[in-house]
Write a structure and sequence with these properties.
The chain has about 240 residues and is α+β, with helices and mostly antiparallel strands. It folds into two domains: about 5-75 and about 235-240, no CATH class; about 85-205, Aminopeptidase (3-Layer(aba) Sandwich). The chain has eight helices and ten strands. The protein has helices at about 5, 20-25, 40-45, 60-70, 100-110, 125-140, 190-200, 215-225; strands at about 10-15, 30-35, 50-55, 70-85, 95, 145-150, 160-170, 170-180, 205-210, 230-240. Strands 1-2-3-10-4-9-8-7-6-5 form a ten-stranded mixed beta sheet, sandwiched between helices. β8, α7 (about 190-200) and β9 (about 205-210) form a beta-alpha-beta unit. α5 runs antiparallel to α6. The chain is globular. Homodimer. Its EC number is 2.3.1.210. Pathway: Bacterial outer membrane biogenesis; enterobacterial common antigen biosynthesis.
């Protein structure tokens, strides 16, 4: 069977990922599935160094089709939704990060976020940390995420941080949430309290956050915070030399 025949049942638009292509120096695209999209062909797929596809864990037919066409599982994730009420929140000492915090935040993010979907064999070993270092800088500058909030101790030393983005009038999403490298445990709940407070100030009704399926510490944190699982999904990647 030819490669084109094998791809006949996958209909999707190839959406170029300009920022990722430039940042990783790898022409990248993501599949946008649609019944009225063109049939994917090997030539179209091979135009990119990496093609990504995010599929609901319940969509077994699409998962099987992608796997048969050379896409490999990169990561599984769980998406949570936390209703925001008006109850009082016990807050840690905190501040809004500014540009003076960028250098230490970049270093911390690069050390914390070593395991992600930006990993070998699709990306270089240091790419995950480099990606999240840039993410947290962008949040401080108010691009992509809106803000970065830092929890700190009485002496002002950082204990952890959370970045947030208001996606709609009543919806927001956590981008990054992490304890500062080398600090004692137990920073998760105070950081979630910070995120909840930020949402209350903006009359946000629902706060969303996603994490890796294998990150059991984060899964427990979000469930303890009152968030409910909304969806589970898988990320699949394909390179030109992967088998069709």
């Amino acid at each position: 069977m030819t490669g084109e025949a094998m791809t006949a049942r996958i209909r999707a638009h190839l959406m170029p990922l300009a920022w990722e292509s430039d940042f990783f120096a790898l022409p990248s695209a993501r599949l946008s599935f649609s019944d009225d999209a063109p049939v994917l062909t090997p030539m179209a797929l091979n135009a990119y160094a990496v093609v990504q596809a995010k599929v609901s864990a319940s969509d077994l037919a699409t998962i099987d089709a992608l796997s048969a066409r050379g896409f490999q599982l990169a990561e599984s994730e769980v998406d949570f939704c936390l209703p925001i009420d008006s109850g009082e929140v016990v807050l840690p000492a905190w501040r809004v990060a500014d540009t003076s915090d960028i250098a230490p935040l970049r270093d911390a993010a690069a050390r914390v976020f070593l395991q992600s979907r930006f990993r070998a064999p699709w990306y270089c070993a240091a790419d995950s940390g480099r990606f999240y270092a840039q993410w947290v800088e962008n949040a401080v500058r108010g691009t992509f995420d809106d803000v970065c909030l830092i929890a700190h101790n009485a002496q002002g030393a950082p204990l952890g941080w959370v970045t947030l983005r208001q996606t709609q009038a009543d919806q927001a999403r956590i981008g990054l949430l992490a304890a500062w490298p080398g600090t004692a445990g137990g920073q998760g709940m105070p950081l979630m309290a910070l995120a909840r407070h930020w949402c209350q100030q903006r009359h946000v009704a629902h706060l969303w956050v996603a994490t890796q399926l294998g990150n059991t510490r984060a899964l427990r944190l979000y469930q303890r915070s009152g968030a409910q699982i909304h969806d589970t999904a898988h990320w699949f990647y394909r390179r030109p030399h992967d088998s069709l």
